[in-house]
Structure formats: C-alpha cells, structure tokens
Amino acid sequence: MKKILICTLALIMCILPLIGCGSKAENAETEKILNVQFVPTNNDGSMEAKAKPFAEYLSQKLGCKVNVTLATDYSTIVEAMASKKIDIGIMPPAAYVQARDMGAAEAILTSQLGAYSRETGLPEVGKLSGTFKGEILVKSDSDIKTLEDLKGKRIATLSPNSASGYIYPVAELKAIGIDPVKDCTLTTVNDIPSEMTAVLNGQQDACLVFEGARNVFAGKFSEYDLLNDLRVLYLTEGDIPNDAIAVNPDMDPALKEQVKEVFLNMNQDEAGLEAMSLWNHKGYEDADDSVYDTVRDYTEKAAQ
Q: What is the pTM of this model?
C-alpha cells in the first residue's frame, strides 16, 4: 500500500503542471506563454507603458505568463494571427474580418463602447453600444458644409484597413459620386490625434475618424477645445461593429472559455477597467460573427 501511495502521489505531481492556461503534455517542461496583441489608438508611446500592467493582469487571471505587444498597424496584427505568432488579438473590425476570412481568427467577444448623442456629440451616460459610426471632421469655421464640398479638398485618413478612418466614409463618398482617391488629396496619417492636429493647423481640410473621437482625445489638446474647434461634417450611414476579441481557431476549448470569462469580468475590478481603457471599451458581449459581414461589403465598395 505504501508503494501504491507513493506512485499515486508522484503521478499527481506530474499532472499538476499540465493544468491551467491550456498546457498540454508536450509543454510540460516549458512554461506556457500566451501572446496577446492590440492596435494602439495613438502612437505617442503612452500605450506601450500600459501594455505591461495589462500583461500582468492577464497573467494573474489566466494563471500563466502573458506577453502583450502592440501592432505597428492594422495589417501586422492580421499577419501575426495568420502566422500564429499571437494567440489573442484585440482587433479592429476590418482587421478581424480579414483574419477571419483567412481562417486565422475566431471572435469570442465583441466590445461595447459608450454611446454618443447624434445631436450634441456628447456621451450618453449609462448607455452602451455594440456598433459605432465613422465620422468626418472639419474645422468649425470651415466653408465645407456638405459631402459634395469635399471634392478637391485635402483629407487625412488612417490606414486603408481602418473601418472608420477610411473604408466606410470612402465607400459612402463613392456612393454619391465622389471618388476620394481621384477627386480629393488623401494623406495617410499614423493616428487620430495627428489627423485632428493636421486639420486644426490647416494642413488638411478634413479627417476621417471614429464617432466620439473629439471626446476621447480631448485631453491630448491643451491648446484647443475639440468640441468647439472641430465640427462633425458627416456620420456614416453604415454601422460599424466594435472591436473583436479574437483567438486562434485551434486554441484549446477550455482555454478559450477561460479567456472569454476573464474579458467578460474585466469591468468588475479597477485593474480590469484600467486595461479596458486602452481601447475605450466599457464591456464585452458574446460575438455574433455575422454582424462583421457588413465590413467586408464596405471594404469591397471602398476598393472599387
């Protein structure tokens, strides 16, 4: 009996290291590391500093080492998912659809954002939304009053893979007979604060951003009152689905559920709320993958 007890205890000790964070037998001698990546909303270096606390938060909740990196642009996070260099991607909608269509990503959750009043442009307290609009901004005193007035103007955009910063507004401009690529001068800018700065200082006549951007980045402009100095010329008719929390499709199902639970409960503690603030997320809900199909439709229209 003593020998049997010793053997049983030895077996248990061998099994324990394999439990947690989706580790399998082949990883018994190597600590499991989960790689997470997200696309920063600005490139001033502030988000890099916040990536480490986010990694520590996930490590604590998931019970394994987590490495968090920032994608350099929308395309690199797609490439990282496709090459399996990352396990979890916090992905803008267009990037997610591209990765999904490659069989490289599966949305387990969709983020919730604070809703904005379409009349005042201010946040609606206590209201959340699973979608948002693209927004075209001009200076408040600009003589640009309609979409048609954008013809021949200079427009700051984000990457052509950005839903609100390019795809949706470009597609809707084309729908009214204006091809921004041919009829306007488009300049790709690294981030939204840089877009708005270019409009404020007169380098650009308009910029393409996401709904509520003036509120989100107001603190970065000490010399301007964005709500007064910039005006919303246009909100896209199409609704854009929010960011996807996506995983590699071949992730262990148990780990997938564990990741899902961590994000669903992230708004329940201060550290989690701080992590969510990286992308202005207010909460998460189960992903309905079909809502992302509209992004593909708009992408095709913008590319025509």
A: 0.86
Is residue 38 classed as helix, strand or coil in its secondary structure?
strand
Go through 139-175 and write b for each residue having 16 or more CB atoms within 10 A of its CB, e for each that does not: beebebeebebbeebbbbbbbbbbbbbbbbbbbbbbe
- Over range 97-114, report the average pLDDT: 97
Mean pLDDT of the 116-145 span = 94
Residue whose entry in the numeric block shows the structure tokens 């007064």: 228
**Treating both helix axes as pointing N-terminal to C-terminal, what angle do 168-175 and 293-303 enclose, rounded to 10 degrees?**
60
| Cα separation, 224 vs 197, whole angstroms | 10
233 Cβ partners below 8 Å, 6+ apart? Answer: 136, 137, 138, 144, 145, 146, 147, 150, 206
Residue 10 neighbours by CB distance under 10 Å: 10
C-alpha span between 82 and 293 (Å, rounded): 19
Identify whether the C-beta of residue 210 lies closer than 8 Å to the C-beta of residue 135: yes
Where does residue 177 fall: left (phi above 0), alpha (psi -120 to 50 degrees), or beta otherwise? Answer: left
- Cβ-based neighbour number of residue 191 at 10 Å: 17
Angle between helical axes of 74-82 and 93-101 (0-180°, round to 10): 30
Rounded Cα–Cα distance for residues 136 and 121 (Å): 13
pLDDT at 44: 67
Coil, strand or helix at 235: strand
pLDDT tens string 216-261: 999 999 999 999 999 999 999 999 999 999 999 999 999 999 999 9
Measured between alpha carbons, how far is 304 from 189 in angstroms, rounded to an integer? 22
CA distances from 55 to 84, 153, 252 (A): 19, 43, 20
